[in-house]
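W.,

You were right to be curious about this one. When I first looked at the sequence I had no strong expectations either way, so I just let the prediction run and decided to look at it fresh. Below is the sequence, 248 residues in total, followed by the output.
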Amino acid sequence: MGKIKLSDISTSAPKKLDKDKVKHETLEILDELNELQNLLYAAHKHSILLVVQGMDASGKDGLIKNVTGTLNPQGCTVHSFKTPSEVESDHDFLWRIHLHAPPKGMIQVFNRSHYEDILIQRVHKWIDEKMVYKRMEAINDFEKLLTVHNNTHIIKCYLHVSREAQQQRLVERTEDPRKMWKYNKKDLAEAKLWDAYMEAYEDAINHCNDVPWLIVPADQNWYKEYLVALTLRDTLKSLKMKYPRLEK
């Protein structure tokens, strides 16, 4: 597989797509997901880890809400990784991540993830380049561990938003009363580091691609949600699960 270059990948939905038709298909997929989640929980042989990464204002929260919001909360949990606590910082960087790895039968969603430790920390030079690549190696080993030893199927989504769409959404947070709660004065400062983040993301995607990344055009929410829902549905269907039978 050749090197992934983000600048060569569109951030928008294909122009030929019918928005209304795609949104209707998404609703049908979400209905399927409800049954597939029940089956995953009942069969108790596999788990799903959905990793959602992306720049500020790429739409992580909305995506998670709209794709997993109708699932049974007993079988689907979401964890957001924020600045590590003092206790978390005293452990290796994957310690707090492993605590939230999904058990069999569960769908676990990561809103940001272990990749923050080779993204924001790299961009701000809180760790050196040697440590960056050591962490990438550890991430590959960690994902292999989950996959091989616990039948965890990992779906890694990079929400590929354009700089223009990000800027528009950040401005909306200062003008729309319904979105002002999302405003963080640090976001504008982080947005100025766009080029450094793009370089860090591209390097992370290419060096940690043993579990392949799904590059999701994120400028239009309806298309982003469709792609992620479709991938989750197809992953669950591929497991060919069956409901357990009564023991004779």
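Here's what jumped out at me. The chain has a mean pLDDT of 96. And, maybe more interesting for your project: DSSP finds ten helices and five strands in the chain.

Coffee later to discuss?

I.
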